């Protein structure tokens, strides 16, 4: 977790309409009292429009730093997570299956703020992040980010531990496969 007072946020998705990345930009624009560094991974048809929107809404804000890191391989993203501090993952999609991007973040102990759509609630809950309504307003999203930033170090650490535990207990494929094989061998 960050120790310098900056909340480091990552989002990872294609820059397409249903991912609603513009809501992240608009929410960050409303936050005035939290130092934030946001990195978005992914390309897509809306990327240039999102970069322009970010420039218009965020460039004048001394408390917000951002970057569009573009498309990276899964290995590069995992490397980023393992070598950079990330405090929070954010996903504001209007629809989602089982969100692999959130599971991957959880595997590094990164809590998530995510819309309660599709299979998101199977991965994210109020113990390892925050679920938000699919039709949450920009104000709601901004408030959730700011509220998370204001939590004590101990509570943030508990969220991190819970995020990792969620992944480890449910989605750690190696562990689950081994348990399955062990169970089959006992039959």
Ordered list of secondary-structure elements with their pairings:
Elements: E1 6-12, H1 21-30, E2 35-41, H2 47-58, E3 64-70, H3 74-83, E4 88-91, H4 100-106, E5 112-115, E6 129-132, H5 138-150, H6 153-171, H7 173-185
Parallel strand pairs: 1-2, 1-4, 2-3, 4-5, 5-6
Helix pairs in contact: 1-2, 1-5, 4-6
Compact overview of the structure:
With 187 residues, the chain is an alpha/beta fold. 45% of the residues lie in helices and 18% in strands.
Spans where pLDDT lies below 50 across 5 or more residues: none
Average pLDDT taken over every residue: 91
Amino- and carboxy-terminal Cα gap: 44 Å
Q: What series of H and E elements makes up the topology?
A: EHEHEHEHEEHHH
Shape: globular
Secondary structural class: alpha/beta
> What's the number of helices?
7
**C-alpha Rg (nearest Å):** 17 Å
